[in-house]
Every structure is written in C-alpha cells, then in structure tokens.
C-alpha cells in the first residue's frame, strides 16, 4: 500500500520500494541533481535515494513509498520500471501527476473518514498515471554470458516457488547437470544462491515498518515464517523481528504537517475546475503579420516509383493542386545496377513528373547506405551533374539535401557522421546549393544523443549544422549507464512542442533552424487511428502547437497508394490521407482546411488559427480528445474496443471568437465540418458495410467518394459596430473551417 512521509532534513533511503519525491520548498539536491520547488523525481525500487542536508534554506519535501509487489499484483507484470524526473524533462503529464500527489498529501493530513477514502481513490489514480505515462522497458544489448542469464532468471523468479526442476527445465538441462554447472559458474549451489537473493530482498522489505514478518517472508519467496526465520538467523545471526525493531528506532522522524499548512504550501498545484468546456479568443483585425504557413512546405512522398502508375499519378495531381506544397521529401536510394555508364533513367521517370508540378526536391541521403556503398559519392556527383543539365543549375540550387542517421549517437557514430557530412557538404558547395546540408535526424525526445552530438559540434569535431532535423516516433529509445536500451512510449499530448522547447533551451541562443522530417505517432496495434477523425484533429492541434517554432514539418506520404504495406481493402490504417481507391479521409480535410489560410495571421491559440486576406477572415479549429491507457497499453490484436473507448473524454468544446476592427457591412459565413457524421470515411463505412462485408465495386467507391465530404452550412451576418461575436461548438475530434466573406 502507498505510504506518505514529509521530511525537513536530509536522509538516505535504501528500502526496496518505488520512491517518489515531491519537493515542497527551496531547491534540493537529490542523487546529485537539483530539484526546484514542486519538482518530482521517481527512484525505482532497486535504487537508493540520497537527499543532502541543506544548511542554508529550510527543507520540506514529501516521499511517497509504493510497494512494488502491490503494483505487480495489480497489473500482473513483474517488469516494472519507471522514468519520471520533472527537473530534466518537459512533459504535460507532470501536471496531472503533480495534482494527484498534491491531493494525496492533503487527504493524508486529515483524519476525516471521507479523506481516507479520497486517499485510496487518488492512490489508484497515481498508479494509473505511472503505468500510462512514465513506464519504461529495458533491453540488454549484446549476448549475455551464462552467469548473467542465471542471475537474470533468478532475479525474475525468486519470489515464486522456484525449484531446481523448474529452472533446469527452462534451461533445457537435467537437474543433475544444471546443479553441477551452476556451482562451477556461480561458485555456490543453486539453493544457496537463491536463498541469498531472497534474503537480500527481504532485508530491504523489513525496512518498511508497515509490513508484517509474514508478508515479508511470502513476498520474498519463502514458504512460511519458520523457513524465513531460520535462513535469516543463519546469515545475519539475528531474527528478522530484532532487525525490524532496531531499524524502527533509527528511522528519521517525519514531520506531521496539518492540513492548513500543507494547503498553503501547495497553493496553485490543483487546477481550477471549469464549469463548462469553453474557450475565448479575442482578435483585433488591425493587428496582423504575414502568415508563415510552415505546414505547407514539405510532404514525404513514400515509394516515389509508384507515381509511374496512372491512378496514383492522378491522385497526387489532385492532392497537390489543392494543397500546394513546396517540397517533396524523398529518399535517394543507391541503385543496385549502378556503374560508370549509369543513365539516371529511373530517376528521370518520377522527377520529370514532379518538376512539371513545380515542386522542389528535398533528397534524403541515408547515412547507413552512404557508409556501405563505396560508389555513393560518385553516384551523387553524377546525379547533380546530370540534372543540372536537364533542369538548369538555377533550379538544382533550390533543392535541399539531408544526411539522415536515425540512431542513438555515441562518440564513434558522431565521428563517422562528421566525416560523411563534411564530404557531402563540400560537394554541394561546388554546385552552390543555396541551403547547407540538413541533418542528422535526431529522434525527438532522445535528449542524451542530442546533447552528445551538439557537444561534438561545439568542440569542432562535427561541422556546424544550421538546419537540424528530427523524427517524431511513437517510442523514445536511449541508453542507460549500463548500456541497456531504454524504451518509453510517448503519451504527452504536447510532446512535439515540449521537446522542441527543451531543444531550444539546450542550444540557448545558438542560431539554428528546426525541421521535423517524419511524424509517425501511431501505435503498431492501432493503425485504424490513421483513418480516424482523431488523426485530422491531431494534425491541426500539432500544427498550432509548433507555430513559430519550426521551419517546416514534413507530413506523411499523402496517398495510401504510395505506401509499401497496402492491401486490397478500402482502408487498412495507411498513413496516407487519400485511400488507394481515391477516397479522401479526415486527415485530407485537415490539410485542406489549413491550406486555405489567409495572407495575414491575426491570432491563434491551442484550438484555433485565425488568418485574413483583405476583409475576409479564415478560422481553422479543432477539438482533439486525449487518448487513454487502453490505446497506449494494448499490445496485441485480441482486445477489441469501440473507437470511443480509447479516449480520456469526449467532451464538446465551445469556441467564442470576439473579432474587433472589422469593416462594417454584410458578411457570408461558410462553415465546413468534419466529424463522425460527415467527412469520415471510417464512420461512413461502418454504416454502409454491415456484418463484415468486404466485397465492393466501382459504384460503392463512387458512393463513398460522394458521401465522405465535410458538411457545409451558410449564414449571413451584419457587422454594424466593427465587432463580430462568432461561436463554434465542436464535437470530440471534430475539425472546422469557417470562412467569413465580406459581401457589401
């Protein structure tokens, strides 16, 4: 069970519990790092926590002790590790965590029976927050020795009824051979080693004054109290109960803070509850600046060779005629048949088509392929020479080149990358390419790799890179101090914005341009999310969140027919915003609404973008709902929930726009909406195709094309005093485009 203690002096905590420190006072030094007021640090059960005594300022902090075994029992998972440090990471998930810890502290300080029930309520909420948003997994790199395999196995199974027969069978050996081999490798018999592991764990458990001797014995893998007492006394020459009494006397006394004192200390850490879900935006039409439509610059092209197929070519023409992207980002693959007489005919086949659309190229040079192929530089030189003659040197100089290396950087990788970057940069300078080489393709959120790489740049080992590129992936991977791979699922609703702010803080005032070259945020068991209205709302939400921070954000390939992993179904969870049969998905309309921006930016917040051209005003808005634990925790296809069950809430949102400084007269307001009832192919198919029917023909496709469109409403208003109050009510995961047109 969860226990809470408040301290006013430095302590060292060595018990085998998950420990969450919540600082309530001036900065603390915890495990050699600084925690500011209201910072949170979690230390896993196997690790120690050291809080240094502050001789100058008064200390007040709380530690929440969580019994790891309770979490194991609740969530049926023995591999529980967490990463939670608000001093090192910017993450919106700290807000509900901080609020939950605050409510636990307040409930713990009251004697009222209702407060005790409230404490239980927020205890389970805390467990869910940790499991949903702060859990990590580890993967050991390289092969393990037999001794390490023995250690890992016993560490995982010692709390169960582990026998020689069981472990020898799992290692595919006879009990006799295993017993002999184990003693040769480990230096002790299997049972002595197992008992030692259990006793080490038990001794840490005894530090918890809330647990009985019986509970400690059973949690440590002993069959009963007698067996535990015998083994413990044999090793430590005292009974567990004697050790527990001594520890109780030596415990650092916690502080008994009353409710009023805590309430004052924690003021502002609980969000005020709004009576309704409403948001206001005040707009002065005279206060305007040029719109930087960074979201309209780059689109990933996917498998570019598929543009040679007529249907795919027609779909792309239709898409580009409306969206008007400036660059296509495509990987420059080294040809398998490359030789000195190579003709570049295959590249011409798709590049000619894209050049006719007046698109520029952002070529991706894969560092791994560059390193593998000795002739890659020769191929690249030939390509630049060939197409400078075919299209003109002026056009070629407008292209971009990007050396991409999606990896966890170390010293050696940094050096190899630096060499390749310098070589390619020198070649591009010969052709006077306008923009310097982009790179290196950081995984957004891998702050350790980023810090190491930029340190190498600062020291001159890696050339300065003006245009920094990032990949947004559904999981973050980095290495811990023992060289294990650590994985964490991204659950922060403002992940891109928060991570970019961390990058800017790290670089301080250094001049760099930031480019997101890939945005892949869906979980592998939830491909359906790409076909949903949530995807459309998420596109607009993230576009607004990064406004003013990015040079561009390269969206996913626009067509399902440009993807490798496709099938014959109407939809299959592809990243494209047009199905392979040419039916537009909600994500298409998100791009379409954003592309209709005006010349001037008037205002924006996290829900809406307001632009204008002359007296006409465009408003793009969304009501993106947060995903819940079902979405992030599901790891197989066997669990089936309704679409609605994957969200924290499905509340409506009311947006009020108070627009001042408008020209007096009559305006026509056109409002287009995409939600579950209009513009959603996914929802439309659930109504058309009953009982898992998958057979369809051209007439069904034509019907879906005609029906999967936004709804349209028209209204007319008169502005007499220069002010217009316009209200929009959005359903969950709904997107809206309102065009306010001056008539007379």
From TrEMBL:
Every HTH araC/xylS-type domain range: 148-246
PROSITE patterns registered for this protein in UniProt: HTH_ARAC_FAMILY_1, HTH_ARAC_FAMILY_2
Gene Ontology terms, MF aspect: DNA-binding transcription factor activity; hydrolase activity, acting on glycosyl bonds; sequence-specific DNA binding
Keywords annotated in UniProt: DNA-binding, Glycosidase, Hydrolase, Transcription, Transcription regulation
Superkingdom of the source species: Bacteria
Keyword Transcription: yes
Assigned protein family: Belongs to the glycosyl hydrolase 39 family.
The name this protein goes by in its record: AraC-type DNA-binding protein
